[in-house]
Write a structure and sequence with these properties.
The chain has one domain: START domain (Alpha-D-Glucose-1,6-Bisphosphate, Chain A, domain 4, 2-Layer Sandwich), CATH 3.30.530.20. It is 35% helix and 37% strand. The strands form two sheets. The chain has a six-stranded antiparallel sheet, with helices on both faces. Strands 2-3-4 form a three-stranded antiparallel sheet. Helix 1 packs across helix 2 and helix 3 crosses helix 5.
Length: 196
């Protein structure tokens, strides 16, 4: 059984480099029992530039990120750069409910990715947004978060499926918002790639 689980973890880390990157940013080579790894992805025909333009408007996150994102705003700074502080109010559902997160941006590759990580209330977390240009045109939007802590261990059976669904809704909402904003892309061209 342990061999099968290790094989599954290796496959996840190989197929989803953002998860491997999030674990690395938390100083981890791989997950442990207290780790929850969530990644959601969607493909859109919109260009990476169009995706970045829509995504980077933090004040509008709640328009496409609901029900997970209730609101988001700049706290310090007004552009995506290292050191910028943002606030998000998220609705996770039982048992975490509604939370206010204040995050400091730690890595930015303009037009491609943004990440932040921290320790708060006994939980370490790393969040990555990644916008991958596709050879055939368009963009794959990836939202990944790794959570580590005793509270996560205790609640993992209750939250894993729900949080995956929330993340998937969020990336699909972003793709639809980009398509509405980008007149060059016909509406309804977003399609799921992965939901893991």
């Amino acid at each position: 059984m342990a061999g099968k689980k290790n094989k599954i973890i290796k496959t996840i880390l190989h197929e989803q480099p953002t998860i491997k990157g999030a674990l690395g940013r938390l100083g981890m080579m791989g997950p442990n029992l207290a780790t929850l790894m969530i990644s959601a992805s969607v493909k859109t025909k919109a260009s990476p530039e169009a995706v970045w333009e829509t995504w980077s408007q933090i004040e509008k996150w709640s328009s496409w990120g609901k029900p997970l994102v209730s609101s988001a705003r700049w706290l310090e700074g007004r552009v995506w750069e290292v050191g910028t502080k943002i606030e998000q109010i998220n609705t996770w559902g039982f048992p975490f409910g509604r939370t206010v997160a204040i995050d400091t941006v730690k890595e930015v590759n303009p037009g491609q990715s943004v990440s932040w990580w921290k320790s708060a209330k006994g939980i370490r977390s790393c969040h990555i947004w990644f916008f991958e240009p596709l050879r055939e045109g368009g963009t794959r939007i990836v939202k990944t978060e790794v959570f580590v802590g005793f509270t996560i261990l205790l609640n993992k059976p209750f939250i894993k499926r729900k949080w995956k669904a929330l993340f998937q809704e969020s990336v699909e909402g972003l793709a639809k918002a980009v398509e509405r904003a980008d007149a060059r892309v016909p509406a309804g061209t977003a399609s799921n790639l992965i939901s893991s």
